[in-house]
Amino acid sequence: xxxxxxxxxxxxxxxxxxxxxxxxxxxxxxxxxxxxxxxxxxxxxxxxxxxxxxxxxxxxxxxxxxxxxxxxxxxxxxxxxxxxxxxxxxxxxxxxxxxxxxxxxxxxxxxxxxxxxxxxxxxxxxxxxxxxxxxxxxxxxxxxxxxxxxxxxxxxxxxxxxxxxxxxxxxxxxxxxxxxxxxxxxxxxxxxxxxxxxxxxxxxxxxxxxxxxxxxxxxxxxxxxxxxxxxxxxxxxxxxxxxxxxxxxxxxxxxxxxxxxxxxxxxxxxxxxxxxxxxxxxxxxxxxxxxxxxxxxxxxxxxxxxxxxxxxxxxxxxxxxxxxxxxxxxxxxxxxxxxxxxxxxxxxxxxxxxxxxxxxxxxxxxxxxxxxxxxxxxxxxxxxxxxxxxxxxxxxxxxxxxxxxxxxxxxxxxxxxxxxxxxxxxxxxxxxxxxxxxxxxxxxxxxxxxxxxxxxxxxxxxxxxxxxxxxxxxxxxxxxxxxxxxxxxxxxxxxxxxxxxxxxxxxxxxxxxxxxxxxxxxxxxxxxxxxxxxxxxxxxxxxxxxxxxxxxxxxxxxxxxxxxxxxxxxxxxxxxxxxxxxxxxxxxxxxxxxxxxxxxxxxxxxxxxxxxxxxxxxxxxxxxxxxxxxxxxxxxxxxxxxxxxxxxxxxxxxxxxxxxxxxxxxxxxxxxxxxxxxxxxxxxxxxxxxxxxxxxxxx
Length: 699
Hints:
Blueprint: E1 4-6, E2 12-14, H1 21-41, H2 51-54, H3 60-70, E3 77-84, H4 91-107, E4 117-118, E5 124-131, H5 138-151, E6 159-163, H6 165-177, H7 180-199, H8 206-230, H9 236-265, H10 271-298, H11 306-337, H12 359-369, H13 371-386, H14 407-418, E7 427-432, H15 436-444, E8 449-458, E9 461-468, H16 475-487, E10 492-494, H17 496-530, H18 534-562, H19 571-599, H20 604-631, H21 639-671
Antiparallel strand pairs: 1-2, 3-5, 3-6, 4-5, 7-9, 7-10, 8-9
Helix pairs in contact: 1-8, 1-11, 7-9, 7-20, 8-9, 8-11, 9-10, 9-11, 9-20, 10-11, 10-17, 10-19, 12-20, 12-21, 13-18, 13-21, 17-18, 17-19, 18-19, 18-21, 19-20, 19-21, 20-21
C-alpha cells in the first residue's frame, strides 16, 4: 500500500485519513437504512384517519367515541343502504331491497332489524344498518362494508348505494391508504424533471433524488418510533406532508450545496477538499434555515387539534432527516463520484467563471432604482390579493371532502335530495345510565329533534340515538346539537355533525394560539442569526403578507377553478405555519449574503444588489422545486390536501419571485444601514470586516 500520493505539482503528500471518510459515511448510511427499513414499512399500519382521530381529546364528540368503545360490543359501524330509482321505485325494486337487506341481517349480528324508511316522493328507500361486530378493528370494518356492498347491488335502472358514517370512514381510510404510492411516485417524477432541467446532466440529478429517498425512509422509521414510544398521532395527511417536505426541502439543500461545490471545484484540485470548502461555506446557512423551519413546525405542539399537534413533530422530523442526509450522505457520494458526475458540464480546476448577463441583476437593478415605488407597489399588490380570502368557501362538509365521490358520498347526496325534511345521520348522545330516562324525555322535547331512541348501556353510560329534523351539517342541525349540549347536563353529544363542529372550534382556537408562537419563535431566531431587529421584522412581515395573498388567491380560485365547495378548517393554520417557516428559510439565504457583503465593506445598495445577483438563481431554483413538490398535493383525491398544496405552492412562488426578488431587495436599498439596526452594521464601520466565504452562490 502506498504511503504517499502525488500532488498536483509533483510533490508527495501523506494520504490523509479523511480520504476514507466518504466510504465510511456511505457504509454508515447503508446500515441505517437496513435498520430503518422494517419500521418504515410499518408506518401505514399506525395511521389513523377517522374524523374523531383528528379531534382534541377534550372535545365532546371525542368523549362520545371513547365511551362508545366501552359499551357492549364496542364501537358500532353504522351504514345506510340506499335504493333509488329516478322515476319512482317499483314493487320489484322494493322486493329486491327487502331480500338484500334480509341477507345482510342473516349474515351479521345487527343491533336492530333493518327497517325501510321510504321517501315522500316514492323514489328512494333507506335501510339504516348498525352492528358492533367489527369493533375497533379497521380491517374487520372494511371487510364488513365491502361485504354489504357486494350484497346490496342494483341494476336495470335501480341505483343502490351504501352510505352512513361507517361507510364514509372506510372510504376515507381507503383513500388515505392509497396516497403513499402515487404521492411518492409523482413527487419523485416532478423533482427529477426539475433537477434534469436545472443541472443539465444525465447523472447528477439522480444523486440528490436517491439521497432524498434515503432521508424519506429514515423519516418514516423515526415517525413510527415516535408513534410507538410517545403516542404521536400519525394521519394520512401528516404522512403525505412529511414526504413532500423531505423531497422539497431536501432538494433545496442539495441545490445550495451542489452549486457551491461546483464553484469550489474550479478553485480546488481535489474533490474532497472542494467539498470541505463547500460545506464550510453553505453548511451554516443550511443548518440555520432548517433549524428555523423545524422550530416553527414544532410550535404546532401547542395545538389542541390532535392531527395538527401530531403534524408538528412529524414534519420537523422530515426536515431534519433531509438536512442530515444532504449534509452527510450527499457530500460523500459526490466526492466518491468525482468531477465526472457533472458531465457534460464538468467544472475545470483553474477555470474562470463565465460572466453572463444575469436576469436577477436586471431585476435587482430595477428594484434598486425605484426602491420605495417597488416596495409600496408590491405591498399594495399583496394586500389586494389578500382580500380574496374573504371569498373562501365555507367550512368543508363531509360529502365535499373527496374530489371524486366514493359510494358513501354519493349515498349522502341521494339522501339529501330524497329526504329534504329530515336528517339521515343520527346524533349520538351519551348520558349517565341513572339519568337516561330523563335525558331521553328531554331530548325528545328539544327544538329541532324529530325522534330519539334508547340504545346500549354499559359502564354507567347509556347511548341515545337522536334524529334531527334538518339535514346533516346544516345550520338547523348545528342549532339542534347546541340545544342538546345546553339542555343535557352531564351528557356528551357526538356523531359526525358534532365532530365537524368540534373540529372547527378547535381549529379556530389553534389559530389564535399557534400563530403568535410561530411568529415569536421565528422572529427570535432571526434576531440571533442576523444580529438585527429591523431585518427580522421585515422578513416576518413579508412572509405573513405572502400567506394572506396565497389564501386570497385560493379564495378566488378554489370553487370556480378547482371545483372545491368548502375550505378545510385546518387550512389557515397549517398553511400559515408552512409558509412562514419555509419563507423565512429563503430569507435567511438572501439576508445572510447581504450581511456578509456589508461586513466586507460594501455599501448597502451594492450589498443588496450583489446578494440578489449571486443568490437569485439558486433560490429561484429551490423555490421552483419546493412549489412543485407541494403542487403534487393538488392531484390528490382529498379536498383538504388539494387546498393545502395549492396555497403553499402559490405562496412559495410569490415569496421566491416577488418578495425575495423585489420587496426585500428594495427595502434593503431604501432603508440602507437602518436595515441592521441596532446591530453594528447599522453604524458606518471604521474599516471593512474581513469578508467571509459567501453562504450561497448562484448555480
